[in-house]
Amino acid sequence: MIVKLSIKGLHFSYGSAEILRDINLDIRDGQIVSIVGPNGSGKSTLIKCIDRILVPLEGDVIVDRYKVSEMKQISFSGGEERSTGHDCKALNQRASFQLR
């Protein structure tokens, strides 16, 4: 099966508070994945790093073999491009994984 979402060595901190440390994950085409844990364990932070709402300190988020950090991101406020690379919207339409 093809890996649709891959997370490699992801680290994220809010200031000195380390929230995500060396997160590694592969989600294959057709898999349904649940992210569970207690309050404050980093579930929302992980999703925000995948969606580029937050920028990880280290590591890569890869969707359909494209690094999310290298994709173009269209601003919701006006449609201007904010970086170079692949188009996130088009890639999201192709990706068929689900996160619950």
Description:
This protein is of the alpha+beta class. It has one domain: Rossmann fold (3-Layer(aba) Sandwich), CATH 3.40.50. Helix content is 15%, strand content 36%. The strands form two sheets. The protein has a four-stranded antiparallel beta sheet with strand order 2-1-4-5, with helices on one face. The chain has a two-stranded parallel sheet with strand order 3-6.
How large a portion of the residues is in β-strands, by DSSP E? 35-45%
N-to-C span: 20 Å
Which stretches are low in confidence, meaning pLDDT under 50 for 5 or more residues running?
Answer: 90-100
The CATH homologous superfamily name equals P-loop containing nucleotide triphosphate hydrolases
Tell me the helix content.
10-25%
Continuous helix count: 2
- Label the structural class: alpha+beta
The string of secondary-structure elements, in order, is EEEHEEHE
Computed Rg: 14 Å
What CATH architecture do you see? 3-Layer(aba) Sandwich
CATH topology type: Rossmann fold
Number of domains: 1
Outline the biggest β-sheet.
4 strands, antiparallel
CATH top level class name: Alpha Beta
Q: Got a strand count?
A: 6
Mean pLDDT score, rounded?
81
Keywords:
single chain, about 100 residues, alpha+beta, Rossmann fold, 4-stranded antiparallel sheet, two-stranded parallel sheet, about 15% helix, about 35% strand, globular, disordered C terminus
